[in-house]
Amino acid sequence: MMEVLKTQHTQQGRGGATIQVELRDLQSGLKSTERFRTSEAIEKIYVETKGYTFLYIEGNTVFLMESDTFEQVEVSKDMFGNGAAYLTDGMALTGQVADGKLLAVSVPNRVTCKVIEAEPSFKGQTATPVYKRAVLENGQKIMVPTFVDAEDLIVVNTIDNSYVSRAKA
């Protein structure tokens, strides 16, 4: 099963139109590019979105619970990519299911994390935006504004590991 990431429709002179499609294999995660004529038929599958709750990690296996049926599900840690570092007990996750099989699971786009270590800031660095290194409680290293200190709670974008804002208390 493949997921469509991007499409581009092209018409070249008198020839038939083609559609260039960037695909990702849902099993292996590998990306590929294919060209299809507009007359070709492709089988479409219907994907259902379900809610899951993170339970725990054991080795390379992540244990989840389906929110509706309370059924426990095991998936590979690789399915989360870089988002695996942000998994916390009881976190609500979104999964895509087709034909009764869990194809993909994603963490929320924004999570609140605690800064455990941050470089010291110096006065006079406010004329232009200046960033410094910080280490989060999950071990991730990100760049944060100079006013962020250790023990602060911040909101982090899990897609690109970037600082979003201070967390509301």
What is the CATH first-level class name of the largest domain? Mainly Beta
Radius of gyration: 21 Å
Q: What is the share of helical residues? A: under 10%
Strand content: over 45%
CATH fourth-tier homologous superfamily of the largest domain: Nucleic acid-binding proteins
Secondary-structure class: mainly beta
* Total number of strands: 13
State the distance separating the first and last CA atoms: 43 Å
> Could you say which overall geometry the principal axes of the C-alpha atoms support?
flat
How many domains comprise the coordinates? 3
* Major β-sheet strand ordering: 6-5-4-7-8
Helical segment count:
0
Biggest β-sheet description:
5 strands, antiparallel
Q: Topology as H/E string?
A: EEEEEEEEEEEEE
Looking at the overall shape, the CATH architecture of the largest domain is Beta Barrel
Mean pLDDT: 85
Unreliable spans: none
CATH topology of the largest domain: OB fold (Dihydrolipoamide Acetyltransferase, E2P)
Description:
The protein is mainly beta and 169 residues long. The chain has 3 domains: 2-37; 48-106, OB fold (Dihydrolipoamide Acetyltransferase, E2P) (Beta Barrel); 110-166, Nucleic acid-binding proteins (OB fold (Dihydrolipoamide Acetyltransferase, E2P), Beta Barrel), CATH 2.40.50.140. The protein has strands spanning 2-10, 18-25, 31-37, 48-58, 61-66, 72-76, 92-98, 101-106, 110-118, 131-136, 141-145, 153-157, 162-166. Strand 4 and strand 5 form a beta hairpin. The chain is flat. The protein starts with a strand and ends with a strand.
